Amino acid sequence: MAAQLRARLTDWTVIVPLLAVLLLILTWGRELSGPLVLVVAAFLAGAVLAAVHHAEVVAHRVGEPFGSLVLAVAVTVIEVALIVTLMISGGEKTQSLARDTVFAAVMITLNGILGLSLLLGALRRGVAVFNSEGSGGALATVATLATLSLVVPTFTTSRPGPQFSPAQLAFAAVASLALYGLFVMVQTGRHRDYFLPVTSEGAVIESDGHAAPPSTRKALLSLVLLLISLIAVVGDAKSVSPAIESAVVKANLPQSFVGVLIALLVLLPETLAAVRAARRDRVQISLNLALGSAMASIGLTIPAIALAMVWLEGPLVLGLGGTQMTLLALTVVTGVLTVVPGRATLLQGGVHLVLLAAFVFLAASP
């Protein structure tokens, strides 16, 4: 028992988050030099990977579809914390940061994670198989949330510019929370089987068929370490954010590209988890992660930002531009055509990945 405990405590998934938090304490409030930025960034990446590991341990313990929710909520906590901290210190140039980050998260999940999962699933068995009823309902919820929160503000007239009035923002926040809560109830309750992996014949796979679930003690330890990892990710990301913004300026990229970088960072755990699931022929779990992350990114982030606007100064720009709305519409239409059959080939995965490439390219060169 003592040997197992020592081995556990000396594991990199334990050491790296603790060192990342220690580094956060030592560097908090300081202007970082070039080499120190690289050190903090390295521990930041390590904390992200540790968060993936511990979230998967907890997910394995609680089972699907609850497991997918663990990582989705964890990633949203990171996203909200980064947006709020940067908006507090960024001034006018961060008025659209919430919109840019949330939209980037939606495009990365619906095209990047989903496309990569389908590609890996199709490479493994020729055709990626998943449950269209659950995935279709999730996609419909994401499309509704994205339209209400990111498209409608462009056309409202109560306030100048693509922004909500306080009453409209409150309605969008409540509606987002209600839809997300309803989806979670459906996913974890009455229609839980819609979100479980399926065989080629459509039969639900209740058990993963791999290692036995971890003990409650191990799962609780991983939960604590997951929280520590998330604190390290948020804090260290805040420490290196000035360097990120400076790099964006030096590269002559638009300020909105900061949102893309934040989304890429916070979605790294979900991407890795989805890739692992797809390689194990559990494409449905990958889709749960992709669609759940997109949903949480809007359904939880927008209400949190709306609440933060009580003490944040300046307007909150949420409405998308014409190019962004076009990409969102194309993504939703393509997603519907991909999800409805419940089966996908390399072609569908490739189409979504090309859409992601188009988004990143146009974000860098609008």
Describe this structure in words.
With 366 residues, this protein is mainly alpha-helical. It has one domain (2-364): Up-down Bundle (A middle domain of Talin 1). Helix content is 73%, strand content 1%. The chain is built from 14 helices and 2 strands, in the order αααααβααααααααβα. It has helices at residues 2-9, 12-27, 34-62, 66-90, 97-125, 132-151, 166-188, 216-250, 257-266, 268-279, 283-299, 301-308, 322-339, 346-364, and strands at residues 128-129, 343-344. The chain has a two-stranded antiparallel ribbon with strand order 1-2. Helix 5 crosses helix 9 and helix 6 runs antiparallel to helix 7 (166-188). The chain is globular, with a radius of gyration of 20 Å. The model has no long low-confidence stretch (mean pLDDT 82).
List keywords for this structure.
366 residues; mainly alpha; A middle domain of Talin 1; 2 strands; 73% helix; potassium:proton antiporter activity; Ca2+:H+ antiporter; transmembrane helix; membrane; transmembrane
CATH topology: A middle domain of Talin 1
Q: SSE order in H/E notation?
A: HHHHHEHHHHHHHHEH
**Helical amount among residues, as a percent range?**
over 70%
- Taken as a percent bin, the fraction of beta residues is under 5%
Number of helices: 14
CATH C-level label:
Mainly Alpha
Euclidean distance between termini CA atoms? 58 Å
Mean pLDDT equals 82
Low-confidence stretches: none
